[in-house]
Predict the 3D structure of the following.
Amino acid sequence: MALTLLLAWRAARDRLIAAGIDSPVLDARMLLGQAASVTREVMLTDPYRELSEAQQTALEALLQRREAREPISHILGIKPFWTLEFSVGPDVLTPRPETEFLIQAALEGLPKDALGEVLDLGTGSGAIVLTLLHERPGLTGIGLDCSAAALRIAAANAEALGLAQRCQWLQGDWRDAPIRPFRRILANPPYIASGEIDGLEPEVARFEPRLALDGGDDGLEAYRAIAPLLAQRLADDGLVLLEVGAGQAQAVQVLLVEAGLEISEVRRDLGAQARVVIAKK
């Protein structure tokens, strides 16, 4: 029997279910689309289109990678975030939906014609700073990261989005951030306690860069390093916005207050978890 799009999708879905994948229906569709070079619309309107041998071989290779719990974003090389699409891979943390709450909070109070500069600490793929620049055409930005490999991906994303002329990439430690007044300072730093990483889902524990996950013994190591640096880099009307993990908001607020900042808000995500701590001078 010829292998059609419909049959291939069903078989892929069943294999991913057996492998314990959380989103087998969607992942099967995306992998099939990649292997057969077809869109979702083609799958719906032409489900009996037959796959070539080369397409079947490509699908098998992709399925084996996903069955091994490699993240779908790494397999496809892209991840949608906000209204954009970013190149990702094993050198950067895949942007998460909860980080969109950081973006939303940062954009509030910034008019469409806002001017100024934003700083993204631990930029990774560049998703945070580039999304802000896309939404506010008058802003410029700096993305700081200690990983040269991550910065190469961020720079490629900036180029693909037409934002390369408005964003600068710096390699270094937190302390290497330029000392000048930023309109927004944002960070989604490593905040998983070291001892908890290996217990996370395999897609994270085995494939995400540990550098972007490991927050030290209690998950707060990066915040302790960042907090004292913020006041001298924040504009008088600027905001600091930090994404935090479960149960960390109170401790991060204390660190910011001790560093001379004032807490303006703690933003919760859709699960009612404190997700973004916002502070000002």
Q: What stands out?
A: Strands lie at 78-81, 84-87, 116-121, 139-145, 167-171, 182-187, 234-243, 262-268, 274-280. The mean pLDDT is 96.
